[in-house]
Amino acid sequence: MTDHSDGDARADGGERAAAVSRETAETTIDVTLTIDGDGDSAVETGIGFFDHMLDAFAKHGMFDLSVTCDGDLEIDDHHTVEDVAIVLGEAFTEALGEKRGIVRYADRKVPLDEAVAGVVVDVSGRPHFEFDGEFSQERIGDFTSDMARHFAYSLAMNAGLTLHAEVEGVNAHHEVEALFKALARSLDDATRVDPRRSDTPSTKGKL
Ligand SMILES: [Mn+2]
């Protein structure tokens, strides 16, 4: 009988975790990610609302996540949010390894009061992003609402996700928070190890 414990999803049999650092002229970022975590997070990006969203992402995805970002916030929030998404995406790619035994597909809708966000994801290794909706206010504290869309795009490109997202509502804080929670819940589902499956869930044998 094959051991289908979580570590089985990696060729090296190790924990599904990664630590990724990235330094550019615009940002310096350190991310650690454990996919089979407890929802614990320690996040410091310099943007209060973005920290709130990354904490929610960890909590609802049952990921353990640490993020520090020293970014060029004197310009705006763009590089910080984009680059954190890039590094987080790279961490997912590294942590998932060969993606053995994962569920692969998931879809989740999450409401927050009047707002609702939906995410359909395939952990495919084929980066693709579709988005439908708009955010009702341009800014949420120091966070530009449209950067939530760009975060999801950058995560999809770097985690190798086929990702379709949609959002509607009247309050941008609710809309963005619902989107991050739907991202988290769908990624939690899609990255989970299916105990019936020990191979890679693709007829190609590779994701
Ligand atoms: Mn909130």
Give the tags.
alpha+beta; Ribosomal Protein S5, domain 2; four-stranded mixed β-sheet; 4 helices; 10 strands; binds manganese (II) ion
The CATH superfamily bears the name Imidazole glycerol phosphate dehydratase, domain 1
Strand content: 25-35%
List how many beta strands DSSP finds: 10
DSSP helix count? 4
Instruction: Assign an overall shape.
Output: globular
**Strand order in the sheet with the most strands:** 1-2-4-3
CATH class: Alpha Beta
Largest sheet: 4 strands, mixed
The number of distinct structural domains comes to 1
Write down the CATH topology: Ribosomal Protein S5, domain 2
Attached small molecules: manganese (II) ion
Q: Order of helices and strands, N to C? A: EEEHEHEEEEEHEH
In the CATH classification, which architecture applies?
Answer: 2-Layer Sandwich
The radius of gyration over CA amounts to: 16 Å
> Which stretches are low in confidence, meaning pLDDT under 50 for 5 or more residues running?
1-8
